[in-house]
From TrEMBL:
It comes from Rheinheimera pacifica. Residues 15-148 form the HTH marR-type domain. It comes from the Bacteria. Keywords: DNA-binding, Transcription, Transcription regulation. This is MarR family transcriptional regulator, transcriptional regulator for hemolysin.
Length: 163
């Protein structure tokens, strides 16, 4: 880890904390995608649920999707009900846990998913347009390190709180 030895450097870092900038870029990125898919009848909650289900894999439970999205089940349940009403998803009982529901894309949902992926890729390309592939790779590596460090801190805090 690089040590900050210069007071001017430290003051500059405090003006625009990196976390704030990462959060701002994330919000703008999501807003750009939402604007792009609004004409498809997709809200931010709906498109994020669909893309995260794609990443988790069909058959994932509602609980697993809620955890992946970092939201509570009641918030997700409403969104999933809307997607079921739009014929994008279907719920099926879990084969061994009667309390759980598994999620699957319908044929209409698969078609919408393809459009969502295409639009999100277009937004990504637009956001990356002035970055070299090496710069994108370096940014990804740096964010991976920060994510690992954050997870380590959370684990340590959870362990301390149990003691």
């Amino acid at each position: 880890m690089t040590e900050i030895t210069n007071l001017t450097e430290m003051k500059a870092m405090l003006k625009v904390p990196l976390g704030n900038q990462i959060g701002r870029v994330h919000r703008l990125w999501r807003s750009a995608i939402t604007a792009s898919v609004q004409s498809l009848g997709m809200t931010e909650a709906r498109w994020t649920a669909m893309l995260h289900l794609k990443m988790l894999g069909e058959g994932a439970t509602q609980q697993a999707l809620a955890q992946e999205l970092g939201i509570e089940m009641p918030s997700l349940s409403r969104t999933l009900s809307q997607l079921v009403e739009q014929d994008m998803l279907q719920r099926q009982p879990h084969p061994t846990d009667k309390r759980a529901q598994c999620l699957y894309f319908t044929a209409t949902g698969q078609q919408m998913l393809a459009k969502l992926i295409e639009r999100t890729m277009q937004i990504r390309q637009a956001l990356y347009q002035d970055l070299t592939p090496a710069a994108v790779q370096q940014l990804m590596q740096s964010l991976d390190i920060m994510e690992r460090n954050a997870r380590t801190l959370l684990l340590a805090t959870a362990t301390e709180n149990k003691a």
